[in-house]
Prior knowledge:
By secondary structure, this protein is mostly helical.
Amino acid sequence: MSNPTTTVLSPAETERLTRRGLRLAQFTVGYNVIEGIVAVTAGVLAGLVSVVGFGIDSGIESIAAVLVALRLSARLRHGETDERKEKIALRLVAVTFFILAAYVTVEGIRSLLAGEAPESSPVSIIILVASLIIMPILAAAKKKVGTALSDNLILADAAETRICVLLSVSTLTGLLIFALTGAAWVDPVAGFIIAAFAIHEGKEAWEGELVEDDDDED
Length: 218
């Protein structure tokens, strides 16, 4: 999982960054469990597909963060990386992207065919705005650690958090457009956009290309 162009870190620096990555993963789990429960409840009550999808994404992100935390904890205990287990964990994180894409797509199609009209949801707007404030900071912190360590697993977790940011933007935009125009189709279409992002990120996580992609961007 190393990149030959990356500066070699000392064992102490590697441990410090790994512990930071672990703390970020632990925070992600705690925050997203709360966010997911609130979003799914509010989305179900209002009949908002995108908000339910957002809440499920929070749960999926929690699962991904648990996988990352377990692997980082194992590294700190054993002082080395188990490449085989790291690859398995990365593949499992990739699968969570595909699960999200499948759910949002199926629910969006169902909503369009049924012609369902969602209700307004102030609670959904509040949780989405909170996500827009917190998640970009969290994603940037994860990306910084993952890039420093040239670590695909942490970068996949950062990508999962970026999906949460995109989903927040898309879902909130859909809710505002619906509130202004009454166009019910905006909600599921917002979900379709996120499904496309999730599939792209899931494919890159599965193939282990996230480190190279991040290096290209810098």
